[in-house]
């Protein structure tokens, strides 16, 4: 179940990266010209989405690993 | 708990971003019919779908974990076959056939009352004849 959740967060990160690149890949932003409102919006929203996906992905991964440690065998106490 | 919360927060914020992407062409006055409108509308729709699916997945996973930890009550088991059939009235209990003893015990007080009445009448008649 949480594999699908991690995949969803990863997809959101990928969508953010696509959104940052889209104005330049699709040719809607003329080369050398000042950025249009659409380009600015896409780059900002894409960057926020990619950052969210990045932080979310690693937070989810860290929580998953912490749960694995908590449920696994406890190491013997060292004197 | 951290991972469920992180997944839910990320997906919810992404849902808001997706909605904004779909509204941005109207809010920021993009040139109509341009590539920017198509890109934002399709990407926004995709982000909304992915974010909604992710919210559902994390919410279900968290609920399952809470049930497994005993913090949420178990869902009651469904009984589809029993629930589908209409309830029939309970069959009446079989009536036992009356026995001879039952008839005797039923008639004995009646006969006794009749005999007492008869005796009383006979006694009254004798008294009238004595007069």
From TrEMBL, chain A:
Keyword hit for Transmembrane helix: yes
Domain of life: Bacteria
Parts of the chain that traverse the membrane: 43-66
Assigned keywords, A-Z: Membrane, Transmembrane, Transmembrane helix
Name of the featured protein: SPW repeat protein
Species annotation: Microtetraspora fusca
Lineage: Bacteria, Bacillati, Actinomycetota, Actinomycetes, Streptosporangiales
TrEMBL record, chain B:
Keyword match Membrane: yes
Keywords recorded for this protein, A-Z: Membrane, Transmembrane, Transmembrane helix
TM regions (residue ranges): 40-59
Statement: the UniProt record of this protein carries the keyword Membrane: yes
Region of interest (Disordered), ranges: 69-99
Tree of life domain: Bacteria
Protein name: MFS transporter
Organism: Microtetraspora fusca
């Amino acid at each position: 179940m949480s594999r699908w959740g991690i995949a969803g967060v990863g997809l959101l990160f990928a969508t953010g990266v696509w959104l940052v690149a889209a104005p330049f890949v699709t040719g809607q932003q003329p080369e050398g010209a000042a950025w249009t409102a659409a380009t600015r919006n896409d780059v900002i929203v894409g960057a926020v989405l990619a950052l969210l996906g990045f932080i979310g992905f690693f937070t989810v991964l860290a929580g998953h690993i912490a749960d694995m440690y908590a449920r696994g065998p406890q190491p013997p106490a060292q004197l | 708990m951290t991972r469920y919360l992180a997944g839910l927060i990320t997906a919810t914020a992404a849902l808001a971003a997706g909605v904004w992407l779909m509204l941005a062409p109207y809010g920021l006055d993009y040139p109509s019919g341009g590539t920017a409108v198509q890109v934002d509308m399709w990407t926004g729709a995709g982000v909304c779908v992915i974010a909604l699916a992710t919210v559902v997945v994390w919410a279900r996973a968290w609920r399952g974990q809470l049930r497994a930890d005993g913090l949420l009550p178990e869902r009651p088991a469904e009984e589809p076959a029993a629930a589908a059939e209409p309830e029939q009235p309970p069959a009446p209990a079989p009536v036992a056939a009356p026995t001879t003893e039952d008839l005797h015990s039923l008639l004995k007080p009646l006969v006794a009352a009749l005999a007492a009445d008869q005796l009383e009448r006979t006694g009254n008649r004798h008294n009238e004849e004595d007069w």
